[in-house]
Amino acid sequence: MIAIVVVVIDATLLATGVIGPAAALALFLAVEAPLGAAVVTGYVRRYRTHRAGTDSRPNALRALAADDPYLRMIVAEARTLASLGRWIARRPDVPDGAVAIGYSRGTLGMPAALAVAALIELVALHLLIPWPTVRLVLDLLGLYALIMVLGLVAGRIVRPHLLTSDELILRSGPHVCARIPLDALAAARHDRRLSPTNAELVSEPGREILALPGPDGTRLTLALARPVTATMPGMPWSSPPAREVTEVRLHVDDDAADRLRGAVPSPAGRA
Questions:
Q1: Alpha-carbon gap, residue 104 to 222, rounded angstroms
Q2: Between vectors from CA 65 to CA 171 and to CA 243, what angle results, nearest 5°?
Q3: Which ranges of the chain does DSSP label H, i.e. alpha helix?
Q4: CA 156 from centre of chain
Q5: Could you give the CA distance from residue 270 to residue 239 in angstroms, rounded to a whole number?
Q6: Residue 169 — pLDDT band, cuts 50, 70, 90?
Q7: Residue 271 and residue 169: Cα distance in Å, rounded?
Q8: Is it the case that residue 158 has pLDDT exceeding 80?
Q9: What is the pLDDT of residue 160?
Q10: Which pLDDT value is given to residue 86?
């Protein structure tokens, strides 16, 4: 919070001509450098604590990000930008040996409309605002918002569900909602449901359900032979709660539904 206040005051003094660029830079460094050093030192100590209790550096970094809201926000934005980069480079996040189970078809209308609206707003504000400094700030904020919206669109395209030799990985953009071992899949059936239309964890009598719908609901239901842990993507700064579910309802692309049904072991195979 202190860092944000300092940046705002520094930028205001610079924009109004009270101080020059050199003084603004000196003020920024005088306050931000000690704060930055203290923050980095704290993160290093916490990373070492997590590293001592985990088997790898990536796991230690994930644990560090999981208990810090600011790091969660940074990680979420980095993943959004990475999704956009993968979309531009046409490199979907599908590991070797995994089968992509797409779920973006029919779901991109609203995000695309938001992207167009953000672009129109960016151009309109640039043309209407007469003050150069304010116009520049709003241009940067508008461009950032447009990039984030495009990144969310890209995440649904380049990060599909994954079907591997031993598990089904369900994702919502970069967030992994559940990892379901194939031997935990009891049945898969076409099951058209118009609600819910937002991803959520649903409780029904005798069942806990992970719902990953499109704008017109779900079309495929997976019954599980045993509960699996599932989480839902939330706000970037929040840590999503985990729950055990016994059923999954999905929106998937047309060709993906048959792939998933074919992945369910037969009763004889499970026996």
A1: 19
A2: 45
A3: 2-15, 21-53, 57-66, 69-89, 109-128, 132-158, 254-263, 267-270
A4: 9
A5: 35
A6: very high
A7: 23
A8: yes
A9: 92
A10: 92
**What is the Cα–Cα distance from 122 to 142, expressed in whole angstroms?**
5
pLDDT band at 271 (very low <50, low <70, confident <90, very high): very low
- In the numeric block, which tokens belong to residue 158? 């380049």
Q: Which of 1-15, 39-53, 106-120, 201-215 has the lowest mean pLDDT?
A: 1-15
How many Cα atoms are found within 13 Å in the side-chain-facing hemisphere of 216? 12
CB 227 within 8 A of CB 245: yes
CB 252 within 8 A of CB 102: yes
Does the structure show a pLDDT above 70 at 244? yes
**Percent of the chain topping pLDDT 90:** 13
Quote the radius of gyration of the chain (alpha carbons, Å).
23
* Tokens describing residue 195: 């609600």
Beta bridge pairs of residue 242: 231
Residue whose structure tokens are 């579910």: 245
Alpha-carbon distance of 69 to 236, in angstroms, equals: 8
Around 106, how many Cα atoms within 13 Å sit in the side-chain half-sphere? 14
Of 240, 241, 238, 257, nearest to 249 (Cα)?
257
Structure token digits, residue 92: 């979907």
Tens of pLDDT, residue by residue over 173-228, are 888 899 999 888 888 888 888 877 788 888 888 888 898 888 778 888 898 989 99
Tell how strand 242-250 and strand 167-172 pair up. Answer: unpaired
- Tell me phi and psi for residue 198, to 5 degrees: -120, 145
Query: In which element (H, E) is residue 102 found?
Result: none
Q: What element of type H or E holds 56?
A: none
Helix orientation angle between 57-66 and 21-53, rounded to the nearest 10 degrees: 120
